[in-house]
Amino acid sequence: MFSGIIAAVGQITQLSPRNDGTPTVRLTINAGRLELDDVGVGDSIACNGVCLTVVDRRDDCFCVDVSPETLSCTIGLDVPGPVNLEKALRLADRLGGHLVSGHVDGVGEVLRFDSVGDNRLLEIRAPEALARYIARKGSIAVNGVSLTTNSVDGANFSINLIPHTLEATTLGSLAPGSRVNLEIDLIARYCERLLNCQEAA
Q1: Mean predicted confidence (pLDDT) in 43-52
Q2: Strands (E), 80-138
Q3: Are both 145 and 193 inside the same structural domain?
């Protein structure tokens, strides 16, 4: 589990096929300011909101394997470039954002990225199937960043990004047409499941 509070912006420096004949891709990621002293093989790190398992670590870099399925339903892990990084939560950690599983539900498209003073108004179109899970003043993870929605109109929703978020994550580089990983709030997912079970009973 994660909180959606980004610890550092890392950099995918290398993509290479595994040597075992599988279509899985191995990523080498420079961790940037992310402290790796307590990270070992088998630990989880969210990369652009995707929970991935560390398979190798050296100095200031770590490696993860990404399956074709993950590459097909996410964005930002198939090319070298910056990625938002967060280590998995410990039970004693503060939950500064909201509970994030690192399982991307869909890819959205940025419609607007407008300056509002020092802030930015970010409007995103989510896949239609996710629209019912997105509520005004609710939580959503965008490229792994825990954010609060300002407004919702069908599958479109808007968010206000403060300067700190723009500086501490990759979201400052978004533009209309950019695609982003979305993870809906876990509470919405479980509420729907409970309601469906009650109706079926």
Answers
A1: 98
A2: 81-87, 106-116, 119-125
A3: yes
Q: Domain tally for the chain?
A: 2
pTM score over 0.85: yes
What domain range includes position 110? 106-200
Whole-number pLDDT of residue 201:
62
Give 77-105 pLDDT, tens digit per residue. Answer: 999 999 999 999 988 888 888 999 999 99
Taking residue 35's Cβ as centre, other Cβ atoms within 10 Å add up to 11
Residues near 199 by Cβ (< 8 Å), separated by ≥ 6?
none
Q: 176: phi > 0 → left, psi -120 to 50 → alpha, else beta; which?
A: beta
Helix or strand run (H / E) with residue 71: helix 68-72
Helix (H, G, I), strand (E, B) or coil at 153: strand
Q: Cα separation of 188 and 166, whole Å? A: 27
Residue type at position 6: I
What count of other Cβ atoms lies within 10 Å of the Cβ of residue 166? 17
How far apart are alpha carbons 78 and 15 in whole angstroms? 8
Domain match, 72 and 18 both: yes
- pLDDT single digits (tens) 105-156: 999 999 999 999 999 999 999 999 999 999 999 999 999 999 999 999 999 9
State the burial class of residue 74 (Cβ atoms within 10 Å of its Cβ: 0-12, 13-18, 19+): buried
The total number of residues shown for the chain amounts to: 201
